[in-house]
Amino acid sequence: MANFNIHPGETLLEARNIKKIYDMDGKRPRGVNPPVVLDDINLKINAGEFVALLGPSGSGKSTLLRILAGLLRPTEGQVLFKGVPQYGTNPHLSIVFQTFALFPWLTVLQNVELGLEAQEVPPTQRMRRSLAAIDTIGLDGFEDAYPKELSGGMRQRVGFARALVVEPELLFMDEPFSALDVLTAANLRKELLSLWREHKIPTRTILMVTHNIDDAVLMADRIVVLGANPGIIRVELPGLPMEQRDANNDNYTKMVDLIYRIMTSPRADIASLMPQEKKGTSSKLAPVKQQPYQVLPHVAISDVTGLLELVHSKGDREDLYQLGRDLQLEVDDLLPMIDAAHILGFAEAQEGDLILTETGKRFAEAGVLEEKDLFRQQAIKNVTMLRHIVRDLAREPSHTLPEERFLNELQQHFSEDESWSQLETAINWGRYAELFSYQEERGVFRLEEPEVVAALVS
Ligand SMILES: Nc1ncnc2c1ncn2[C@@H]1O[C@H](COP(=O)(O)OP(=O)(O)OP(=O)(O)O)[C@@H](O)[C@H]1O
Ligand SMILES: [Mg+2]
Predict the structure, then answer these.
(1) pLDDT at 31
(2) Confidence of residue 282 (pLDDT cuts 50, 70, 90)
(3) Residue among 25, 33, 63 to mutate when testing ligand 1 (max atoms within 8 A of CB)
(4) Whose CA is nearest to atom 4 of ligand 1?
């Protein structure tokens, strides 16, 4: 075994004050600030620990994993491996990605052996160890198969075998199950977990990036929740004792519920979400930093309307977890809808519930015409981008402006792609509110009813 030189609890990997800004290879126009993807991240990974990294899409999970693995350089800060600053790729670490690049012209066995060739392990030993890894990971009998003969789940197993055969001190996984269908993913997860519990996997220290709260609660000794824009650590929670990691256990349900609440309240003070007995105890709380610029969630207003109507039908207040279940939405899909309802002043997330505001109740009850009016008022009042577009259009004698005008403003705060997405969302919301029209071919905004709309902005 490669790991007898590790002392349990020893810090293996440490991120200190990591900040990451993608500099876009110098391609960004002058005066434009690229977004801060990770801001002041401090994180330790201790020997023997299974750490899960959870967070909404775009919160920088993959970026952090790559920085910790030495595949990507942070803009500021440092990564230490056993106390020594790490430069370049860490050779003591293997990574399993969402989909695994296997060499199509090599058999399963040859693909697995590759990792050991790089380490100059002699051929007979290479074969023996690879066969053992293939056996462990459940691919016995498929040694001579080629990747194209395997299902997605089996290919991912080859990926695991290739990562584990070198007996790395650290194993990183970035959404290892999310490209698989639900059943295959559940199977592989279960097997991997029991292999790890029964010490059949040589590597004890694991970092796993995941969207899935259940995965994190089932598998991890420590759960780190990231927030987005910029990516920060919102909270670190100690995982459940092994015997409580069972969907029928009370503490399991409470834990899933707590993380769900944290993720669906991106701007809430974490302490206010903690159950009473947990407050001020072992979990490490990080303050939630102010967002530098309003970030619009990319959702259709019709989805927000649907959500508000559902909550209204339940008496204007509903448990967030229950809402996710009713709508059959993963937290990642529900979150932007809640965010939109919050930005528009229609609802607030509190203590794990979504509660309609007075305006939200009126909106949910309104007929089509009143609904448009209310939406229009709320949008102008609360959505910075829409207010700016309408204000600037109202000032122009022609009541028209090219999209560049607003893209420039957005590019001060977002990457080029995200600026376009932000503008697209603003356009969709603005059209729904009938605040302006937008001509796609020419990229031109026009104020539709200058008098009506101007009165709203003044
Ligand atoms: N190479 C890159 N150049 C510029 N921006 C990037 C690059 N890679 C990622 N980003 C941006 O950095 C932010 C964080 O991305 P990252 O992939 O780390 O997030 P994530 O949490 O892993 O998201 P997901 O859950 O969707 O995988 C995103 O806004 C993304 O657009
Ligand atoms: Mg990712």
Answers:
(1) 60
(2) very low
(3) 63
(4) 22
- Tell me, what amino acid is at 127? M
How many Cβ atoms from other residues are within 10 Å of residue 386's Cβ? Answer: 24
- Kindly report, residue by residue over 8-32, the tens digit of the pLDDT: 678 999 999 999 998 766 565 566 6
Average pLDDT of the residues in 360-378: 90
CATH number of 301-364: 1.10.10.10
Q: What is the pLDDT of residues 330-363, one digit of tens each?
A: 877 888 899 899 999 999 988 778 999 999 999 9
238/54 Cα distance (integer angstroms): 13
CA of 62 to the centre of ligand 2 (A): 4
CA distance 164 to 159: 9
CATH of domain 366-457: 1.10.10
Q: What mean pLDDT comes out for the span 96-104?
A: 85
CA 388 / ligand 1 centre spacing (Å):
27
Q: Where in the chain is the domain with CATH 1.10.10.10?
A: 301-364
List the residue whose alpha carbon is closest to atom 29 of ligand 1.
58
Residues touching ligand 1 (Cβ under 6 Å) are 22, 37, 55, 57-63, 415
